[in-house]
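User: Teach me something about this protein's shape.
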Amino acid sequence: MGTPHPELRAVLPENLEVIDRSTVNAWHDDRVRSAIEATGRDKILIAGVSLEVCAAFPAIAATAAGHTAYVAVDASGTFSATKRETGLLRLRQAGVIVSDYASLAVEILADNAHPIAPELYADLDMPFATLVGQLAAVRG
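Assistant: First, the predicted structure itself:
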């Protein structure tokens, strides 16, 4: 895996352990699963280099283990339209929630009055995010 990109490293805690693994399914690596379960959270947001493997396999396994797994489809890559479609089918069949990264970020935010809302919407860099920010400024 190597070193995370500087932009990612900049927002992560300095002491965060980077887990370099060889398992195809991240959920099957005891260190990864233990780190996720140590958070005490039941909801897991997943994205991967390939939707149909890197995101789908751990999301399906986490769902089977009783967690609620969300996959950010547009934050995950793929290598063909067929792989993308079959990956989405597998995710849906397994009960994984599929969405886009912006909708998931807004769902996590939950309240447009939250102090980080303006920064979040600016980072989303999407037309609806600009509109929400403008509406919030008018109300402000």
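Now, about its shape. DSSP finds seven helices and three strands in the chain. The mean pLDDT is 90. If you'd like, I can walk through any region in more detail.
User: That's plenty for now, thanks!
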